[in-house]
Amino acid sequence: MAAVRDGEQRAASEPWLTKRELAAQLRCSTRTVERLRLPAMRVGGQNRYRLSEVEAHLRGEERRGRLVSFPGGRDEVPA
Question: Per the domain annotation, does 79 fall within a domain?
Answer without folding.
Answer: no
